[in-house]
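thread from #wetlab-drylab

HS: before we spend reagent money on co-crystallization trials with S-adenosylmethionine, can we at least see a predicted complex? here's what I'd submit
DV: go for it
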Amino acid sequence: MATPPAGPVQAPALQLAMSGLLARALFSVTERGILDLLPEGPLGSAEIAGKTGAHPAAMHQVADPFPETLDTGWSGVEPAFGEPWFEHLHARSEQAASFNRMMVGIHGTEPAAVAQASDFTGIGHLVGVGGGIGTLLRAVLEANPGLRGTLFDLPGVVDQARENPAGLGERSAVATGGFFDGVPAGADAYLLSHVVHDWDEAECRTIL
Ligand SMILES: C[S@@+](CC[C@H](N)C(=O)[O-])C[C@H]1O[C@@H](n2cnc3c(N)ncnc32)[C@H](O)[C@@H]1O
């Protein structure tokens, strides 16, 4: 088996960039008195929510730096921007392009490692759902010469994928749309990478 790629060179910079968010999340739970509950022993997220009045889903994953998130369970994006994140990006093509490039940077060597480690035997047609500009799908196609792929994402994102000089390769097509309305039908497998964490439980069920 081939040697897995080395860790991403950008990891230290990413850690620094994310540390502000982690510090803010820690502040939010401290301010709410949640840490004061824990010396008596570990508590599950539902128990903490029950004792503090926080929203159970928010307690399950305190990944957002906004105190409002603890009460509502909403993403911190809505209080900050007044609209859901992907709607916000959709209306701002430069920020969207920057976000899509960031996705490629943040995952670093992950697509090649996933492509190497995964067995796509028996799959002829693979759809990359919410596949961004197609970095993972391209890596999987390169590692599996018998496979063809379709990149599926929102229209602006797919436009950027089309303009990507690295391209998606000859065995690929693109399709645009929203995964809450449906995905391209008839493929043998559907690939989701870094997608479901953006949505709540009910939305994840719909996507899956
Ligand atoms: C966090 S990014 C992950 C991108 C890529 N899969 C990766 O691993 O880098 C989430 C992706 O979901 C896409 N997305 C968000 N809402 C969508 C929707 N309703 N339908 C299809 N794609 C959507 C975004 O445009 C974005 O490319």
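DV: The chain has a mean pLDDT of 88.
HS: ok that's useful, forwarding to the group
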